[in-house]
Design brief:
22-stranded antiparallel β-barrel; mainly beta; 56% strand; 872 residues; five-stranded mixed sheet
Length: 872
């Protein structure tokens, strides 16, 4: 019932945008004069065949329609006139009535589903009806729906890496059709990108980074293995958190402000081997979208970005195998039908083996990773599909028997998709996700465990009321179980005692409504609202402090210090410790000047209720998460963006330019000397501040031809401020704005691909970024015969500029072979000119000379790579 009420409410709101006009018709008014009356008052245009004589007088009686909606006018004329009118988009089609046509006929609905040659639904395929110049995009099930009058139409479908599909269809009633797109050998081997990569100027969505898997697999990467996450770094607004580090930064935000979803379930670790590989296996990933702004209402929980990653579904008809063998890791994927045309499976795995080579040397350290992806899909009739997707990955490293660690993600999602009608689809999913970290220190004889666990539910509805008005709505629930740390001694001579830091629990719920509204042919709106609540739950003891302040200022030494608890309050299991709730409005619009040029704007407010405790620029595997509560407020984002989008030369080239500004309240900051690890009263080291970032993003692409690529550039600034709570307190950096650790003033990427012939293709990528902000010493004082550095204000200096050039080549020995064993080689060189990029700078005193000196730590130099890839 509540969904019917919502639909009625938004149908009422639609009337605000309906165009009311005044029209007079009688025996003296020609059809041409009637057209002029309509076109002078609306954006509608008339279309008709040679059978229609516009100089003829078709109206038999005089009538004046005052302030009538265009839909009602058409309906009335179809009853009383001798010709037939029909509305498609912003076109009014005119044709003669047949002997069978006595009243206005309802429009026919063409419903279709688009599959690839593996019988897997294609997400985001372009479906275009040439005769009426109307197009749509397929949804996550590969589905689309278009309303058409009786007639013959040409349906054209395009998608990157697949052969364009055209089919003539005869429409006389509602119809359902299946479209299958074949692999295009020319596109796959020569990589000639179709026009589907041109800018969608009419779509309201902006501030999104997208790359097809075909593009991702062509980018040169370390060790020759494609990496979906690192490929996004070549697009504007995204930078790395540091070389050989996990995490990524979006528009000046921190890594913990990114929501990472794998088939709808959140994951907290995004990389293997300290950032060398991402956790996403390119073989099984079907698509990934990074939302930087204009974020739809269905997403929430983070204030910087949303990375939405989907896994493929298996082939419904054939068993297939593909994989790759690299220098330090290999991968294998198997897929096929459980029951032909009904159910399928796909399983993919990766593992590294560098540790095996290290055992043959004198090096006692080792590092390795493995991960496993799986997805099972089964159709229960025409309207129901169930699926299960899962991921498990771990990293293991051992540093010279000094310490060892294991960390990684596990997730599983069960989904049920139900189709009530062509206009109403639902998706219900439940999921489990965890991230765990284990540290062992043998010589101290203890181990440390920490973990964050999620249990969640999502119920989403997609409701198409018309081609011009669509609703998306749903509810989410997410339960958190935080274990910040467990100390476990082993052996009788361990100096540590068993210790369990206070576990924390929380429940986050939300409901959202998102509206897609085509107001006119040129103006499209997307608006919505998300309402979120967050409950911090017991059982837990919460410390109390004098004046409610867990951090106090010492005016004698001009420093902040940990306050001493005055007592504690215990909250029983399930009892509410703190409660927060927020309305999060979203708005986006696009205005198309023509089919190739538009401007767009967006606004979104978002709340983030959990925080990552880390005073390093790049998150470490042992990083701890904590919920909002009595001393830590939720982060709140307001972001604005405007952009200009254009395609040129029949979409061979495209340009995107955006300006953005975002401001975040309640961004946590740390006092100097903060103790974050193993701290049961973390509030004693945290102050609440604010952050802001603003900038310009440019992206120029060449979409077609043997030579393709893009140039992206970002000019931006990211700052943070933590003012004093009283007049005598200085705050951090004297309460002034200072550069955050994620500021990159300049960020330039140039990516190029060249198809030399069917056997050989070449690619290159050049990256240039401003050095990360750091705090350098500006002087020294002597204490106990040693020089002790005195530091400047936070992040007042920068590391040297970061840049490198990567190149790659792909060799396909038998490009024309389409069956049986098929293979290709990938060769790459990361950091071709061996740039020693600074990961950090260390300042110390030389023990021999006593002189002060600085040392630069660099992680990577030149890294060659090769991999052999196959499928059969």
């Amino acid at each position: 019932m509540k969904h019917i009420i919502s639909a009625c409410f938004f149908l009422f709101s639609l009337s605000v945008f309906s165009q009311s006009i005044t029209v007079t018709v009688d025996q003296t008014v020609t059809l041409k004069e009637f057209f002029k009356q309509i076109e002078n008052q609306t954006d509608f245009k008339f279309a008709f065949t040679d059978q229609i004589n516009t100089e003829q007088k078709y109206f038999t009686k005089k009538h004046t329609y005052k302030n009538i909606k265009i839909e009602d006018l058409v309906s009335d004329l179809n009853t009383n006139a001798s010709i037939q009118f029909s509305i498609v988009g912003n076109n009014i089609f005119v044709k003669k009535k047949t002997s069978k046509t006595t009243t206005a006929k309802k429009k026919n609905k063409l419903t279709g589903q688009v599959f690839d040659d593996s019988n897997e639904p294609i997400i985001g395929a372009n479906v275009y009806v040439k005769e009426v110049q109307t197009g749509v995009i397929t949804d996550k099930n590969g589905m689309f729906s278009i309303e058409l009058d009786n007639g013959t139409y040409t349906v054209a479908i395009s998608y990157i890496g697949l052969a364009n599909k055209e089919r003539k269809v005869e429409i006389t009633d509602d119809a359902r059709m299946k479209f299958t797109m074949d692999s295009d050998s020319e596109q796959l081997e020569q990589v000639i990108i179709t026009t589907s990569k041109a800018v969608d100027v009419k779509n309201t969505q902006m501030s999104v980074n997208k790359l097809s898997m075909a593009e991702i697999k062509r980018l040169p990467t370390a060790m020759g293995e494609p990496d979906p996450l690192k490929s996004l770094l070549t697009l504007p607004g995204v930078t790395n958190a540091g070389e050989a580090s996990s995490g990524f930064n979006v528009r000046g935000g921190a890594a913990d402000q990114n929501l990472i979803l794998l088939d709808g379930a959140p994951v907290y670790g995004d990389s293997h081997m300290f950032g060398f590989f991402s956790i996403f296996n390119a073989d099984i990933v079907s698509g990934l979208d990074l939302y930087k702004g204009g974020i739809p209402s269905k997403f929430g929980g983070r204030v910087s970005s949303v990375l939405d990653v989907s896994q493929q579904t298996g082939d419904l008809n054939e068993y297939k195998v593909n994989g790759g063998i690299g220098l330090i890791s290999s991968r294998l994927l198997v897929q096929g039908p459980i029951k032909k045309d009904v159910g399928s499976f796909i399983v993919a795995g990766r593992a590294s083996y560098a540790h095996l080579f290290l055992k043959a040397t004198d090096i006692k350290s080792s590092v390795m990773f493995y991960d496993l992806n799986a997805k099972f899909n089964y159709r229960l009739g025409a309207n129901n599909t169930i699926s299960f997707s899962g991921y498990m990955g771990n990293d293991l490293f051992d540093i010279n028997n000094f310490f060892a660690s294991t960390y990684g993600n596990t997730m599983g999602t069960f989904s049920w998709k139900h189709k009530f009608s062509d206009n109403l689809n639902t998706s219900l999913s439940v999921f489990y996700s965890d991230y765990k970290f284990n540290l062992q220190i043998p010589f101290q004889k203890f181990e440390w465990d920490s973990k964050i666990t999620n249990y969640g539910l999502k119920y989403n509805w997609n409701h198409t009321l018309s081609d011009n008005f669509k609703l998306n709505y749903g509810i989410d629930g997410l339960y958190y179980d935080f274990n910040p740390g467990t100390v476990k001694p082993y052996g009788i001579d361990s100096q540590f005692n068993y210790n369990q830091l206070d576990k924390k629990y929380a429940l986050e719920t939300s409901a959202y409504l998102d509206v897609e509204n085509q107001v006119t042919e040129k103006l499209n709106l997307r608006y919505g609202l998300r309402y979120s609540t967050f409950l911090r739950l017991g059982g837990e003891s919460i410390s109390t402090y004098e004046n409610g302040q867990a951090v106090v200022y010492n005016p004698l030494y001009h420093i902040y210090e940990e306050a001493t608890p005055t007592g504690s309050t215990y909250y029983g299991k399930g009892k509410t410790i703190s409660k927060f709730d927020n309305f999060e409005p979203r708005l986006a619009l696009s205005y198309a000047f023509n089919d190739e040029t538009s401007v767009k704007a967006s606004y979104n407010r978002m709340a983030q209720y959990i925080h990552m405790l880390s005073n390093t620029r790049a998150p470490l595997p042992m990083t701890i998460w904590t919920p909002s509560g009595p001393f830590t407020k939720p982060q709140m984002l307001d972001q604005y963006a405007v952009g200009y989008f254009k395609n040129f030369k029949e979409r061979e080239y495209s340009f995107e330019g955006e300006l953005f500004y975002k401001k975040i309240k309640n961004r946590i900051d740390y006092i100097d000397g903060a103790n974050l690890l193993g701290n049961n009263n973390i509030e004693q080291d945290i102050l609440n501040g604010e952050a802001r970032s603003y900038g310009m993003e440019l992206l120029f692409r060449k979409n077609t031809g043997r030579f393709t690529g893009w140039v992206s550039y970002t000019l931006s600034k990211a700052e943070q401020r933590t003012p004093g709570r009283t007049a005598e307190e200085p705050g951090i950096a004297n309460g002034n704005w200072y550069l955050s650790g994620y500021d990159k003033l300049h960020n330039l990427n140039i990516t190029a691909n060249y198809e030399f012939n069917p056997k050989w293709s070449f690619n290159a990528n050049f990256s240039l970024q401003s050095g990360q902000p750091v705090t350098y010493p500006n002087g020294y004082y002597e204490f106990g015969g040693r020089n002790v550095p005195n530091y400047t204000l936070r992040n007042a200096d920068r590391l040297p500029a970061y840049h490198h050039l990567d190149i790659g080549a792909t060799y396909t020995p038998k490009p024309d072979k389409k069956k049986g064993w098929q293979s290709y080689w990938v060769f790459s060189i990361y950091n071709l000119y061996n740039r020693q990029n600074a990961a950090s700078m260390m300042f110390s005193q030389n023990d021999n000379t006593g002189a002060n000196e600085s040392r630069q730590l660099s992680i990577y130099g030149l890294v060659p790579g090769v991999s052999y890839n196959f499928k059969f």
